[in-house]
Amino acid sequence: MLNRRILRMKLFKAVYCYAENQGMTLKEVEALMETSCEAARDLYLFLLSLVGPLTAEARSRIEAARSKFRPTEEELNPNLRFVENGITPLLTQDPDFTKIISKKKFSWEQYDVFLRHLYERIRDRKYFKEYMEKEESGLEDDARLWSRIYERELEDDPELEDILEDMSIYWNDDLGYAASWCRKTMASLAAGERWSLPPLYRSDAADGKGLDSDKLFVYKILRAAYTNFAAYFDRIAELTPKWNRDRICTTDLALIVCGMAESEAHPGTSAKIIINEYVEIAKGYSTPESSSFVNGLLDKLINKHE
Which of 110, 208, 222, 290 is the one with CA 20 to 30 A from 230? Predict the structure, then answer.
């Protein structure tokens, strides 16, 4: 499930925590990263479990309208295309999916206000109206609709961000990636495949045979970063004589250490790829000047030791 860009982000966060608290043991740092990786898959599961409750919200609207004292003809004979979509039962009636959701204790029940707001927003969308107006629709159309919901409605939603922040400190940066996996799930369900829990590491998937172990890849870097942290810092300090430890941004320090550790743990990876990866992470996590700072130092540190 997790690609190497995401794994590098998880690695960076673990190294950052160690840089802030160097009393942590290697076992503690590894456990922190493993928890962070597992959390990304948990978020995918939580988002995917939205399908049933959102469909139920639509159904409750229809039932409430039918129960009015004087319902209109449209309210008595509503368009049921969405509430009868084929994707919902494939998930809500799947024993493996319902079992793991129950085991994780994931529920949208207490977030009824968010569900109400989300459904109101969705039903005003052009893509939803076009779906509802089709004379006929099949599983592919249903899957395409859900895919658009995951693609367009969840990111940058302040209500959802608050929910996720309250549920897990590890979920604040994984929403986009988890939603992309929900879209992949919609495509597989539309193709007639049954839902299955994606392996945590991409190399463990059936189509990942022949790939080097992603888990080994990231843990080798983490162990190198942990073991050689002081030595890496000394090398960084040599190139930044005007900056002492307290003046170097911890975020930048962690990114540079990760780059150095990856270069030594995986010497076959080109310096250009390594530098580009951590510069991209810097753009999302550090100051506006950090990407050029990280780029410049890693270029000197990695290329110097190739």
Answer: 290
Provide the pLDDT confidence category of residue 306 given band limits of 50, 70 and 90: very low
Confidence band, pLDDT 50/70/90 cuts, at residue 244: low
What pLDDT was estimated at residue 208?
Answer: 56
Q: Which two tokens stand for residue 186?
A: 């919609």
User: DSSP string covering the chain, please?
Assistant: -B-HHHHHHHHHHHHHHHHH-TT--HHHHHHHHHHHHHHHHHHHHHHHTTHHHHHHHHHHHHHHHHTSSS--HHHHS---TTTT-SHHHHHHT-HHHHHHHHHHT---GGGHHHHHHHHHHHTTSHHHHHHHH-S---HHHHHHHHHHHHHHSSTT-HHHHHHHHHH-TT-TT-HHHHHHHHHHHHHHHHTTPPP-PPPSBGGGSGGGTTSPPHHHHHHHHHHHHHHTHHHHHHHHHHH-TT--TTTS-HHHHHHHHHHHHHHHH-TTS-HHHHHHHHHHHHHHHS-TTHHHHHHHHHHHHHHHT-
State residue 204's pLDDT score.
76
- Concatenating the DSSP letter of every residue in 215-233 gives HHHHHHHHHHHHHTHHHHH
Q: Which tens digit of pLDDT belongs to each residue from 150-175?
A: 999 999 999 999 999 999 999 988 99
Mean of pLDDT over the chain = 91
The two structure tokens encoding residue 168 = 């897990």
Look-up of token digits 């990856």: 262
CA angle 185, 190, 191 (to 5 degrees): 100
**C-alpha torsion 90→166→180→255, nearest 10:** -150
Q: Residue 59 contacts by C-beta under 8 Å, 6 or more apart in sequence?
A: 83
* pLDDT attached to residue 245: 54
Q: Does residue 209 have a pLDDT over 70?
A: no
**Average pLDDT of 186-196?**
97
